[in-house]
Amino acid sequence: MKKTIIVSSPGKLIIGGEHAVVYGRRALVTSIDLRLYMQLTEEENESNEQLMNIQFHDTNQNYSINLLDSNESYPLEIQAIFVIYNHFKSFLSEKKQLNIQVHSNIPIGAGLGSSAAYSVCLVGCFYLLCHKTLNQDDINQLAYQVECLFHGTPSGIDNTISTYGQSLVYSRTLKKHLNFQLSNLAILDTGIPKSTKRMVSLVRTFIENNPHEGEQILNDIELCVDNMIEHPDEINQLFQRNQQLLKCIGVSISEIDNIIETLLKKNISTKITGAGGGGCLIALTHSFTKEEILDLLKDHPIKSVQFVQCGVEGLKEEQTFFS
Asked: Please, one GO biological process term (predicted)?
């Protein structure tokens, strides 16, 4: 008998506190209405091998693997499947074939939590297959292990917001839900490749080499976060201050600085969201339209401008798979 499980999970924006959150400071993060969808099917298997077919619709990549034959030469997305399969295999029948399909409207490698949404959906699918219902706490903990495969030593903020959704004040010792909304919030995708792992390592090196200055910057970033929550009317100035501090620890680049300076001339406050070094920015656009933003930035590297809704639902079951 064929069994089908479909789940989805949202992307995220870090509104304030990126990088400082790795060192125990508070960050403000929100889920957004860009989602990753995953379908897991279990069906009869006439072979003696534990087989799986994986289809990534957005990149047109397909894999056929033997789940009993882990291989580090596979991409991280496939290695993650081995990790999760090995965690749940005592609950699974070896006489079943598993198939996964993935579709996402979260840009990959742009600082919007695409790998976390993938990790959370992967764990969620296997969890439902084995336990019938979703336990967000269990899923979040296991998804963090998968995120470590992708990013080394991440803060855990991405998998947490992708699991629970809504908006959160987050640190490793705090997870507080907020009713936090921003209107006219746009994501500016620079299209510049970036590596979260490399940026996290760069910041670690900076702090190790400049311990006093580094600690002060981390504290100031956390103060920005606290003020964003307590004084939302000052959000424009706080965006600018948070960005200045991120620049101090080396995660901004000249292309990003130029975009931010251009928009600031129109009183549009813009900052890095996520790791930096490329990827996406977020902007408080006031009454400017997408077309007007693109026109302002016609001489800058901008792949897309997208307005988003904040504070959406986290991991959930779906009735249909979007392919």
From this structure: isopentenyl diphosphate biosynthetic process, mevalonate pathway
